[in-house]
Amino acid sequence: MISGISNRRRFADLTEQEVLALAISSEEDDARIYRTFAQGLRAEYPASAAVFDDMAVEEDTHRQQLIDLHVARFGAVIPLIRREHVAGFYARRPIWLTENLGLERIREEARAMEHGAAEFYQRAAARTTDAATRKLLGDLAAAEVGHERHAEGLEATHLGGEARAGEDKDAHRQFILTWVQPGLAGLMDGSVSTLAPIFATAFATQNTWTTFLVGLAASVGAGISMGFTEAAHDDGVLSGRGSPFKRGLASGVMTMVGGLGHALPYLIPDFWTATTLAMIVVFVELWAIAWIQNKYMETPFLRAALQVVLGGVLVFAAGVLIGGG
Q1: What is the spatial distance between Cα 51 and Cα 126, in angstroms, rounded to a whole number?
Q2: Which domain holds residue 7?
Q3: What is the C-alpha to C-alpha distance for residues 52 and 41, in angstroms, rounded to an integer?
Q4: pLDDT tens across 76-99, in order?
Q5: Which residues does 14 contact at the CB level (< 8 Å), separation at least 6?
Q6: How far apart are CA 107 and CA 112, in angstroms?
Q7: Shared domain check, 255 and 140
Q8: Global pTM?
Q9: What is the 3-state secondary structure (H, E, C) of 267-321?
């Protein structure tokens, strides 16, 4: 670990040739990232893919300009130096972390890439006292600012009002299908289906620890079951609902959250205090489900609340009657 840190060069210790070489390798990396964005978006968002294709071409152009400058000043042999070789140099997220980002998040990532590069070069230029190095860093900063502004122009060219609105609508729909819908189903299942076993155990035993263990087991078991079921029953290829892993994760986690919400109060030793708090949590959970249905599924709030509350009350009553009997 220590030797790895010591092997990284400080930016202040780089020569002008090494700074130029670092800029060249950075431009290569950015072009590769933009092409990866374009490839991932091409099938569903062709207009945005065209933006990133053009941005990659721009990076190639600037890289060639930097190479020409290097050849003119230092010769044809470019030192091998990359971001990871320099301590404090602005970082890029690995490609495998950006492949599954949503459309708007990818746009933000691209803007952040250009802005971060420009800021870094500006700060570096302000710290140097060498006139030639200062000019070089200033030129690099101006180039990155130009990239950012040109990217905005490319978006305006390829993403007119209708194209952008259409892609944004498609991205929102995909978000609903991949995350909200499975997560909502999980939250409803976890919140409602665990009411009966938890409150039946609570009123039958009046033992808070036993009730908590039953609630924990029911929540975790239901979460695992819902997650695997959601991931296995639809691979998303024909339905367009997105990655089965993402849907299974959303469904499984939200199922566990829904059940654990009213199981956790039974960590309180006093039975009636724990039960009262659990009932309050149940009310909050049911309200949250109705709110999500209204906001994302466009279900009228009163109808959503009536459906959820009616179902929750019936299951809760069943648990109390079974446990109290």
Answers
A1: 32
A2: 2-159
A3: 9
A4: 999 988 878 887 666 666 655 555
A5: 22, 81, 86
A6: 9
A7: no
A8: 0.52
A9: HCCCHHHHHHHHHHHHHHHHHHHHHHHHHHCCCCHHHHHHHHHHHHHHHHHHHHH
